[in-house]
Every structure is written in structure tokens, then in C-alpha cells.
Hints:
The complex is a heterotrimer of chains A (217), B (208) and C (92).
Chain A: H1 7-12, H2 22-38, H3 42-50, H4 54-59, H5 62-76, H6 82-89, E1 124-127, E2 146-156, H7 159-162, E3 171-179, H8 180-184, E4 192-199, E5 203-205
Antiparallel strand pairs in A: 1-2, 1-5, 2-3, 3-4
Helix pairs in contact in A: 2-5, 3-5
Chain B: H1 12-25, H2 31-44, H3 47-59, H4 61-69, H5 71-77, E1 88-92, E2 97-102, H6 111-114, H7 124-132, H8 134-140, E3 150-155, E4 161-165, H9 177-183, H10 186-190, H11 200-207
Parallel strand pairs in B: 1-4, 2-3
Helix pairs in contact in B: 3-4, 3-9, 4-5, 7-8
Chain C: H1 2-13, H2 22-36, H3 42-63, H4 73-87
Amino acid sequence: MGGMDGFGRVIREENEPVFHADWERRLYPLAILALRKLGVVLDEFRHAIERIPPARYLDSPYYERWLAALETILLERGAVTREEFRATFGDEGAGAVAKPAEGPPPSPRARTKAPRARFKPGDRVRARNLNPPGHTRLPRYARGKAGLVVRDWGVFVFPDTNAHQAGKHPQHCYAVEFDARELWGKPARARERVRIDLWEDYLEAAPTSPLKKRGNR
Amino acid sequence: MSGNHDAAESGPAARVKALEQLLTKKGLVDSETIDKLADTYERKVGPRNGARIVARAWTDAAYKKRLLANATAAAAEMGFSGPEGGHLVAVENTDRVHNLIVCTLCSCYPWTVLGLPPVWYKSFAYRSRAVSDPRGVMRDFGLTLPDNVEVRVWDSSAEIRYIVLPKRPPQSEAMSESELADLVTRDAMVGVAEVAPPSKTVSRRARA
Amino acid sequence: MSRLEELIAVARLDPDRVFSAPWEARAFAIAVRLSEAGVFSWDEFRAHLIEEVGESDRARTASGTAGDAGEHYYEHFLHALERLLEAKGVVT
């Protein structure tokens, strides 16, 4: 699903009249204000939308999903109780799937359709020689260097695009171990290793030995 | 607080004041919330949190197992959670491996269990040398490791925040969990130091 | 220069001091609060902070000035916050 990248962009995506009904027109500013007041960050709101049961999600017009997500958050934040929903609407409010008991802070992990991992622990990889004009979290000293995947931390939003409002691109993030000699050349001591957390897009497969010389940049 | 240094209100102090006023006018912040947040990080969140986690891991094998499997949950068990603590990983020092934590890109740090980073952690010297000469950095802090110990540096370049579970010092067997927590320093949980054995004074107290 | 010396002197008096001056505490709290309120994500803030720190590192290395001892951190923080708020149109 497209998902939202920002409240502003949501509106601009529509070709037809923005709001089809009065209640939609009221919902949008209401939702914005309520979320802001509650200190709800975008990720959490998006997460609430993703937790709507698939059948309802696919059937609902766009703003009904917003409404469901908003009700979910109001309930979970304790801003409105189920009794109050019942008293006001005659039902108990949104039917989004209950948040798993994982701890309060909203996580940047994508929860639906998690992308498959391209690498696994034990794979030899090489950090790409990226030098993008914008933001990247691939440290300069690792570019072009070969290492070993030691952990798969799971799926995370990709900062290179997300920080520039160019999409979340959730992908696996790995702890990759680099030998000090690979990073710094011969004088580096044995038994020194650096583990760097790298998103999948920073990596390419490197089936040859990490110590094989490829010309230092 | 630094007392009257802000009275001059020049440079960054003036800019922060102007920014806060503008944001307050726009309804985006209020000074009471700002006061509370600043106070929380200045006085309430700090390395004592991490020290308690370490002491508990040393004395409770089941907790240590949980800590190494999922440090975020293990920290939350003790009430430690919040910004920059959403993905916490504890890395264990052993006789064969010594861990060192750095963020070369900008000083990311496990706020929820160690508070805000010390000045040296944010310095260019630490950020560049921790990855290229970790043993040299540790020597600067007074720690020399045997050559057969592997030094493993973790660069917190993504969302994971690391805390080192240092080795339990010798002569600490009789100590209570709280006394053990007193021994654990911030530097040991970053990896630039080890936890020193209790001093004679402390161990006398422990035996009493 | 005296402002810098003050900061260093204050930080060295108490190496465990979290903030060297009240403005650092407020800049920090403002950034955290704004991200909690959804004005920007912490990802975005960190991106700007990394850029600030990186630019500062490169400038120092190129000009051969003394390495940043960490005392400029909250100035980087403040710059990053200001640039991000400008980019968001919150301030002009």
C-alpha cells in the first residue's frame, strides 16, 4: 500500500475533489490536531493504519482508514475509553489489531509485508562506494571494504530516502564485521574488528575472501 | 548549571531563547515541558540505570540471558525506556573479547541506560580513533589489554544502541546487587575501561 | 574565543556534567519535544546532525585547526535544529 509520507503529501495525491463528504473535511484537521496534541509521530499513526485487519483495510475508503487509525490511537493512548466510545457511538470504536506488548516507543520497523533479507549471517559482503549528495549513514571509512555479515537486526526505515521525504524503503539492516587490516591496511593489529550497522542498500555480495586486495580508494 | 554564563545572552544562548519564544508562540512547545525534559536528562536519566542492569546481570543468570537476548525488553523490565532506547543491544566482555562503543557519524548513544554522552565521546578524536586505534584510545583511558584479547568496536551507525556488559571484577563475590552497581562506571559500559575490583574500604563494608 | 574557553573550563570542572550551559539543555529539550510532537522525525533530525558534524569535521581537517574536543556538539545540535525547522517552513 502507498502509505503516507507526510500529512501534506496525502492531500496532493488526490486527483478528484479532496474531500467527498463533510465528515471527511472535518476529520482531517481534527486528526492532525489530535495527533499533535497527543504527541503522536507519523510512524505511530502509520503503524496504526497498518494494524487495521486486512479485510477492513481493503474495503475502506481512504479516510475511513484514517478514522479507524485515529480511534485506535485515542484508545491506546487512553485519551478516550471504550465506555466513552460506546456511550457516544454505540460501538466500541476501531477494530484495529491490538498492539503487541512490545513496549511503548513507536518503532521504525515496518510491520506489514516485510521485505525478504538478501543476506544472512556468514555471508561475505562489500560496502558500496556510495558518495550520494544527500544524507547517508554509510561511514566513509567502510566504503569499498569487504566484511562478514554477523547479525540481521530486522527491517528498518531507510534514512537515505526517509530523511529527504523520498519514501521509507524499509529494508534489512545488518551488523557487518570488518577486519582492521581490511579497513586500515597492514599496520593495523590482528584481533581488531569493527562492526558497523549497515542497511541492505549499502551492501553488495562479495563471495571472494575479504582480505583479497582490490585496490584501496 | 553553569550559573551566570548565560547572562551575556550572546551567540547560541540568544538564538535558543529566540527559537524557544518563536516555537512557543506557534504553539509547538511550552516552556514547562521543555524545563521538565531538560531536567530529566540532566538529573534523572544517567549511567546509574545501566549500572543497575549490569549488577543484576552479574547476580541473576536468568536476567543476564534475557539481557543478552533482548536488551530493550530487559531494560524496560527495570523501567528504562524512551528515546534512543528503542533498539538496545548488550554486548558482553569476556576473557577473549573486549567491546568498545562509538558513533563515528554523530555521537549516537544509549540514552535510556547511560543518559547523555560525555564530552569526550562526541569529540572528533574519539569518533575517528575508536575505529582506527581502539587500543590506543583505551590506553589513553588507562586500560591496556593483552594482545590475545579481540577488540570489537561497534559503530552505532543505524538504530541499534549498544551497552557493554563488562566483566565482573574479582573480589566482588560477597557484594550485594546494589553494592555491585556502585562499582560500575559509565566508562566501563562504553568500553574504555574495565570495572575495578572493590577497594579495601568497600570490601570491608561488604563483609560486615 | 573566551566563550569557547568558558565552555571547556566549565565542562572540565565536572566531567560528568551533562550540559555545559543552560542553552544546551534547552536546545536539546526543544529538539526532543518537537520530534515527540511530530514536527519532524528523529531520523530527519539525526540526518541534519550528521551533516553538521560531518561538515565541521571536514572543515577542521582541511584547515588543520585543532580537533573538535566535543565542546561544539550542542552548537552542531542547534544548527541542525535551525536548518531542519527552516526546511520544514516552521521558521524562516
